[in-house]
Amino acid sequence: MKKENRLPERLYTLVMWGVSAVFAVFLVGLGGLVIDDLPRDREVVAFEPHYPAELQQQGAALEQAQRAIESERDLDGIRLDAARSAARNAKESLEAWVDTRKATTDPRQDTELLTRTRALENLQNAAHEAEHRLEQLDQKELENEQARNALFDRREAVKDAYRPIHGRLVFRAQLHVFLLRLAFTLPLLLISIWLVMRQRQSPYWPLYRGFVLASLYAFFVELVPYLPSYGGYVRYGVGALLTVLVCVVLIRNMQSYLARRRAAEADSEKERRQRVDRAQAYAKLDRKTCPDCDRPLVLVEGQDTNFCVHCGLTLYEHCGVCQTRNIAFNRFCMSCGSEDIGHAEDRSSAPSAAPVL
To answer: Where exactly are the transmembrane stretches of this chain (predicted)?
Structure first.
């Protein structure tokens, strides 16, 4: 009974699902082209606080001073290395000359000794001066660094004051992006809701179903990720609103369903049985549920279940020709093929046959 439909019907159902999927894919691609032309970046507002002219000028002056200090330091470093190298060479030369002077003991060389000594002292003084200049540059660099740190603190204060303003600008930009996408997806959702509620029995439902699938993709992929969040209030507020709407719709649908069931169960068994679709009846009986009231069937071991104990619907009948037990919704007897699978009230209401004379 699980395969109550004909093979062509099942194949047709599968093909129509494929048509729905293909149609949804093309609609998603077409919608993607439209979405690509809309703003996509959530952070469309750059963080650019406005610094006072005084801070900008002071920052430029400190940067220029730092570059000058670094350039001068490089030059003085080269001079210091050259002075130290010259002093080291002069000292080595003087020591060698002094050793020679001691060996020769020539008094005429005392004047040259003094000259060499003075030259070495001059070179050493030049090295000391270069070291002193480097120390001065280190002090200037330290002072410049302290001034830059103070400037950095002032800039951070300006940034802290600008952050709330930037947050509002970002929220407005995100809300703008969301509203643009909502203007594109909301009509699709409304049309989809109308199609689901009004056109599910339409012969063109496979195409409508593809449109519904594409709308759901547009909602969950193209719209929901761009839902703005302002401290979580917007995102959670929208989520709560959607939950309430879905809950209201489900409650109303269930209440309407229960009202229809109560009205249907007030009708006669014959009227209710005539309203049941044969294919749906086979599927529900296979699941051990009543085709009319959808309640589970009460099965007692060793006893045939011919009626629903909840609504009294006839489930199984005996053939009027061969007395084979058949599903009451069978058109023909599954044993003899007779069409005489009627119900007691049907047979009692039928005109009696004329007597044979």
So the answer is: 12-35, 178-196, 208-227, 233-251
CA 141 – CA 68 distance, rounded (Å): 10
123 within domain boundaries: yes
pLDDT of residue 265: 74
Q: Is 215 exposed, middle or buried (0-12, 13-18, 19+ CB in 10 A)?
A: buried
Q: What is the pLDDT of residue 158?
A: 83
**Spatial contact of 272 and 279, defined as CB atoms under 8 Å apart:** no
The tens digit of pLDDT for each residue in 50-85 reads 777 777 787 788 788 878 878 877 877 777 777 777
- Residue 116 and residue 94 in contact, taking contact as beta carbons nearer than 8 Å: yes
For residue 271, the one-letter residue type is E
Below-70 pLDDT ranges, the chain: 1-7, 9, 38-47, 90-114, 116, 120, 225-235, 342-357
Are 301 and 336 within one domain?
A: yes
Amino acid 345: pLDDT: 45
User: How many domains in the chain?
Assistant: 3
48 and 115 assigned to the same domain:
yes
The Cβ of residue 182 has, within 10 Å, a number of other Cβ atoms equal to 16
* Residues 27 and 125 occupy one common structural domain: yes
Give residue 318's domain range. Answer: 269-342
CA angle 325, 327, 328 (to 5 degrees): 105
328's CB contacts (< 8 A; 6+ apart) are: 273, 314, 315, 316, 317, 341, 343
One domain, residues 123 and 219: yes
Do residues 274 and 205 share a domain?
A: no
Decide: pTM greater than 0.85. no
In DSSP notation, 49-100 reads: ----HHHHHHHHHHHHHHHHHHHHHHHHHHHHHHHHHHHHHHHHHHHHHHHH
